[in-house]
Amino acid sequence: MTTLPRQRQAPSLAKVGAALRAAPWGAIVASLILALAAAAAAAPGLLTSGDPLFADPSQSNLPPSAEHLAGTDLQGRDIYTRIIYGARYSLLIGLGATVVAALAGTLLGAVAGLGPRAADQAISRIVDVICAFPGVLLALLLITFTGPGIWNLIAALGLGGLPTYARLLRSQVRLAATSGYVEQAKTYALGRWRVALRHVLPNALGPLPIVATIGFGGAIIGSSGLSFLGLGPQPPAAEWGLMVSESRNYLRNAWWTGVFPGLSITLVVIAATALGRYLQRRYERRSA
Amino acid sequence: MTLLASDAPAEAAPATTQPLVAVRDLEVTFPGQPPVEAVRGLSFDIFPGRVTALVGESGSGKSVTARTLVGLAGDHARVGATRFQVAGANALTLSERRWRRLRGGRIGFVFQDALTSLDPLRTVAREVSEPLRVHGSTPRRERLDRVYQLLADVGVPDPEIRAHQYAHQLSGGLRQRALIASALAANPELLIVDEPTTALDVTVQAQILELLSERVRLGTALLIISHDLAVVSQLADQIIVLREGVAVEEGPTEQVLTRPGHLYTKRLLEAVPSQASRGRRLSNVEVDAAAAARLAGSAPRTAPGHTASGGGGEVPVLAAQGIGKTFPMPGGGRRRAVVDVSLEVFPGDRVGVVGESGSGKSTLARLLLGLETPDSGRSLVHGQPWNAGDKAERVRRRHSVQFISQDPIGSFDPRYTVRQVIAEPLRGRPLDGARGANRPGGEAGERAAELAALVGLEPELLSRSPKTLSGGQAQRVAIARALALRPAVVVCDEPVSALDVSIQAQILDLLDELNRATGTALVFISHDLGVVHHLVDRVLVMTNGHVVESGHVEDVFTHPLHPYTKSLIAAIPRLPGAAFQAPDTIAK
User: Fold this and answer.
1) Answer CATH for A85-287 from 1.10.3720.10, 1.10.10.10, 3.10.129.10, 3.40.50.300
2) What 3-state DSSP class applies to B166?
3) Which of A222, B25, B162, B196 has the fewest Cβ atoms nearer than 10 Å?
4) Peptide bond into A236 cis (omega under 30)
5) Using CB atoms, which residue from B371, B399, B410 is nearest to A188?
6) Is the pLDDT of residue B133 over 60?
7) Tell me, what's the pLDDT at B522?
8) For residue A78, what are the contacts with CB-CB under 8 A and spacing of at least 6?
9) Domain extents for chain A?
10) What is the percentage of chain B residues whose pLDDT exceeds 90?
């Protein structure tokens, strides 16, 4: 009797504190960073009024100040503005490569898992061959033939990322295809395609968003690395990896020219990984 | 057995008056919102050379009690008692170090799951010799001989070979023996066994029970934890019946089993299926027969309530003709899982298939269901092979043979709700002679709700995820789904083996009532002879892929002809007869 009114009271401070402590802060911060990067990519004009290509040689290699938040580079371009505009390249290439890898990998993995044995053998061996090359080496090789550029970079990185998804999907599809619910579906005469579309694929795709989120971070590192080597967008484009590359000769005198673009890459990649891990933990808890 | 205890070695004699374990008002609580009171106010004594049994269903607190007795209730558990003496020490104040000296030394403990209790990376000899090493009772050089001796004592054949094998190379029975040998290694005064025979075949179970009673004759005190009253009745001197952490009844075995004082004990005893319970209901399940016939009545040409076994000239709904299946074994060789099995299931029949693990009964189920293609012979539905005719015909054939598996939750798509699970077979098909296919979520969803009500599921469960269901609820969902397509026959593979006895009773009653009301035949596959004897009319006994005996269940079980059947029947643990000879005297 006496406990009833007490239950209606507003949650106590201790409870609010506990809820705050229990909140997934890492995931929240990671999401904010990614949201900021996405905003920069979608509408850079909202975050800066400058022009990433506007060069003022008289303002060369100025340290961070109120006027130039992250300083200026050798040509006197505002680094903050270039970083904001650079988000578009990194996100586009990262996202593009992830989508290419996930789509092609999922398709190949699903065919390998569900299709005839010969298809499985063929796909699995091709994936093994792709896997045998280090990702960067494979991309280098491809770009040697196709030439540098954003779309070629996306294709090269996508191909390098493909085996992860193909193998994941193949094993997930196999798992679902031998499950009790698929067996049961056969007993009420559900056709092969119906079973695949209704039961096997939806259950096999469960971990895909997690792997893709973590893979997205990896793709950004890859894109920055290849741009650093001069295989991505060409100067004077404001690309983070390219900016790091251009800064390397002046780091001793103008650390800000390399540190801020490098920090941007690091933050976005860590955010993507942290968010992916958080999703992974939630998924594992849910399926346990 | 008390007399035998006094024959034990001289030092045990004074101990007979002194209990090894004395517990008064034991409380075990696990923190949480709200806290879980696993054990409440439990009191009992364990004497040397005596067998105490803790009996109860899942969640009754019996395993928690056993673990508390060896100080393994868990880090978060709060243990309280007015008296808690274990082997002469006050267990409430024991340090972890002192506990370790008791465990494996003066108290042997055998956990429930024999597979995971053995380290897969260590040989049996290392596992069994561990207590010898830790408690320093045997010099190193003599340890291996002692291990051989211990394994031989618990009936492991070829101990010199088996001792050097790993857990996965042993059968379930041998693993359980190895665990018991390990628990007995340091010659404990008290042996605690948690569900020692639950995963074992009935003949192996009989051997393990014999082994345990042998130890008791030698003066060891035994605490046995089990859900199975029949198993317990073979051994126990004293039974404590637990329910939700409270002892509802305790007393000498004979008294508890034949003159139970508490309603719950009576219900438990009533719920045990056996020969004596044939034709009697085990629980208070009610089935709306009219609704059952309307929702799930099998094909119209079957007269409802038809129970003929082998009616003249009738076409069996399901048949196997000399069916056989061989599987290649890893590393070469072939295993003949099913060899030349024939059977016929007529409308409304109840056919049982019994056998121990590896006898081929599950493969037979898959062959009957058309999920596996036989190497030899044929399986027929309404006289036609599975692959005959056009697509519409093959679909109709599939619909008339449905399946209930041992693991219902695994047979539900994890993304579905209960309603979707039950409705799935009906999705996109015309219902009740209607013309077009039903709209998803419409008629099929309503039909699913009706089927759920038929099998006694509360309506609020329909929108839940099947993962949140209890074992009994999940099996009801599986039954509702199996009946949705109005099958002529349902093949059930061990449908009740994972359930508590009272839940098992409800599911068996449900299958029984539905079979009568709908005329749907049952093929019931089980290792549990009591369940089979209770439910089915005709039975096939399988071993090593062969059917060694078949016929009417009463004939086969009361006058077995084949030696294997005889050994199976002899191994069934039986309750003292009085509990069943006058079932009417037990008040509902």
Assistant:
1) 1.10.3720.10
2) strand
3) B25
4) yes
5) B399
6) yes
7) 94
8) A48, A50, A52, A54, A68, A70, A72
9) 85-287
10) 27
CB < 8 Å to B425, chain A: 188
pLDDT value at B11 more than 50:
no
Chain B contact probe: residue of A15, A181, A195, A205 with most B CBs at under 10 A: A181
pLDDT in tens, A140-182: 888 888 888 889 889 999 998 999 999 999 999 999 998 989 9
| A183 contacts in chain B (CB < 8 Å) | 371, 403, 405, 411
Is residue B204 within a helix (H) or strand (E), and if so which, with residue range?
helix B202-217
- B352 token code pair: 């049982």
Nearest residue in chain A measured CA to CA from B413:
A181
- What's the mean pLDDT in A110-117? 92
Subunit contact B410:A180, Cβ cutoff 8 A: yes
Size of interface A-B (CB pairs under 8 A): 45
How confident is the prediction for chain B on average, in pLDDT? 83
- Closest-CA distance, A188 to chain B, in angstroms, reads 5
From chain A, the residues in CB contact with B415 under 8 A are 202-203
Query: What DSSP string describes B335-402?
Result: EEEEEEEEEEE-TT-EEEEEE-TTSSHHHHHHHHTTSS--SEEEEEETTEETT-S-HHHHHHHHHHEE
Interchain CB distance below 8 Å, B424 and A188: yes
Q: Is the pLDDT of residue B316 over 70?
A: yes
Q: Residues in chain A whose beta carbon is closer than 8 A to a beta carbon of chain B?
A: 179-181, 183-189, 198-199, 202-203, 287
Tell me the chain B residues in contact with residue A201 when contact means C-beta distances shorter than 8 Å.
none
Q: Within the 387-406 window of chain B, which residues sit less than 8 Å (CB to CB) from chain A? A: 394-395, 398-399, 401-403, 405
The verdict on a CB contact (< 8 Å) between A202 and B415 is yes
Helical ranges in B103-197 per DSSP H: 124-134, 140-153, 159-162, 172-184
ipTM of the complex: 0.75
Residue A11 has pLDDT above 70, yes or no: no
Q: Render the burial of B274-294: b for 16+ CB within 10 Å, e for the rest.
A: bbbbeeebbbebebeeeebbe
Q: Evaluate if residue A107 carries a pLDDT over 90.
A: yes
- The 10s digit of each residue's pLDDT in A236-281 is 888 999 999 988 888 888 899 889 999 999 999 999 999 999 998 8
Set of chain B residues whose Cβ sits within 8 Å of the Cβ of A199? 413
* Residues composing chain B: 588
Contact: A187, B401; criterion CB under 8 Å: yes
Tokens of A130: 């792709």
Q: Most A CBs within 10 Å: which of B368, B413, B415, as the mutation test of the A interface?
A: B413
Q: Are B509 and B456 in contact (CB under 8 A)?
A: no
DSSP state of A199: I
Residues of A in contact with B412 (CB under 8 A): 180-181
- Dist. CA B289–CA B86, nearest whole Å: 55
What pLDDT digit, counting tens, does each position of B569-588 carry? 888 887 775 344 333 333 33
CB contact under 8 A, B398 and A181: no
Q: Which residue has the higher pLDDT, B14 or B21?
A: B21
3-state secondary structure B513-555: HHHHHHCCEEEEEECCHHHHHHHCCEEEEEECCEEEEEEEHHH
What is the C-alpha separation between B354 and B373, in angstroms, rounded?
22
The string over A227-266, giving b where at least 16 C-beta atoms fall within 10 Å of a residue's C-beta and e elsewhere, is bbbebbbeeebbbbbbbbbbbeebeeebebbbbbbbebbe
Enumerate the H helices of A115-229 as residue ranges: 117-132, 135-146, 150-177, 180-187, 192-195, 201-204, 208-228
Does B440 contact chain A (CB < 8 Å)?
no
The answer to whether residue B485 neighbours chain A at the CB level (below 8 Å) is yes
